[in-house]
Design a protein that fits this description.
Elements (H helix, E strand, L loop, with lengths): L4 E4 L5 H12 L3 E6 L2 H13 L4 E5 L5 H15 L4 E4 L14 H28 L4 E6 L12 H21 L4 E8 L5 H13 L6 H7 L10 H12 L10 E4 L7
Parallel strand pairs: 1-2, 1-4, 2-3, 4-5, 5-6, 6-7
Helix pairs in contact: 1-8, 3-4, 4-5
């Protein structure tokens, strides 16, 4: 059987790294893309060293041109294209009265436009190969329920959930499924920064933000990146072939839907 190929954005650390490693374990050839070329190369080397097949690419998802180029490079060098995971994102703390145009533009360029460019580039690749495929987007439990101090981030993730639903309807005739995964609080460098900002704004020591948010987790623990990667692995597999337009909560029970 032909090896399936997946591209993961923001795969140099945290959830993206865990997704890339899991997909490689599941037999995918993986394009590991990240804004940070060094971390992308480290993850790709980890996959290749374990007997998998990976390609490292530097990518700023805010650039439509770069996203299309990365997908095309992936097709050429890994021999096809089957799955895109639009994982890259940022989450600055944004109290309502402190939101600026610069913050909005930065978050939306990455979290929303980056997903749109990924969808477009994947569709182009699937069509060029005369096949369908899977598009998997990073949403969040904050895309189901507005989170305090995260107005811009939450609104960007609500946008991703809407994009996922609309794209699923529009692309179904081409055999393309579009779904999203919605993590809660995951032990990653990004969450550490969110905690620092929220704790600082409250005049508290680091860890306060995590403690407050963690009270809402039914299972009583923070998520590991591997928890989220397992959900993405399902969405990337044939087991999810009859699912589209969904944004799956993988948050330990923060939001019930």
């Amino acid at each position: 059987m032909k090896t399936k190929v997946a591209l993961v954005t923001g795969a140099g650390q945290g959830i993206g790294r865990a997704i890339a490693l899991r997909l490689a374990k599941d037999g995918f050839a993986v394009a590991v893309t990240d804004y940070n070329a060094t971390t992308a190369e480290q993850v790709a080397a980890e996959i290749n060293g374990a007997g998998g097949k990976a390609l490292a690419l530097q990518l700023n998802v805010a650039s439509r041109e770069q996203v299309f180029a990365a997908v095309e490079q992936t097709r050429e060098k890994l021999g096809g294209f089957d799955v895109i995971v639009n994982n890259a994102g940022i989450a600055p703390s944004t109290p309502i009265d402190e939101i600026t145009e610069e913050v909005i533009d930065n978050v939306y360029n990455i979290n929303v436009k980056g997903v749109i460019w990924g969808i477009q580039a994947a569709v182009k690749a699937f069509k060029a190969q005369g096949q369908g495929g899977k598009i998997i987007n990073a949403c969040s439990q904050a895309g189901h329920v507005g989170n305090p101090e995260l107005a811009v981030y939450s609104s960007s993730k609500f946008a991703v959930r809407g994009l996922t639903q609309t794209a699923a309807r529009d692309l179904a005739p081409a055999g393309i499924t579009v779904n999203a995964y919605c993590p809660g609080i995951v032990k990653t460098p990004m969450w550490e920064e969110i905690d620092r900002q929220i704790s600082s704004a409250a005049g508290k020591a680091p860890g306060y933000g995590t403690q407050e948010f963690a009270k809402r987790i039914t299972l009583g623990r923070l998520s590991e990146p591997e928890d989220v990667a397992a959900c993405v692995a399902y969405l990337a597999s044939p087991d999810s072939d009859y699912m589209t337009g969904q944004s799956l909560l993988i948050d330990g029970g923060m939001v019930f839907n």
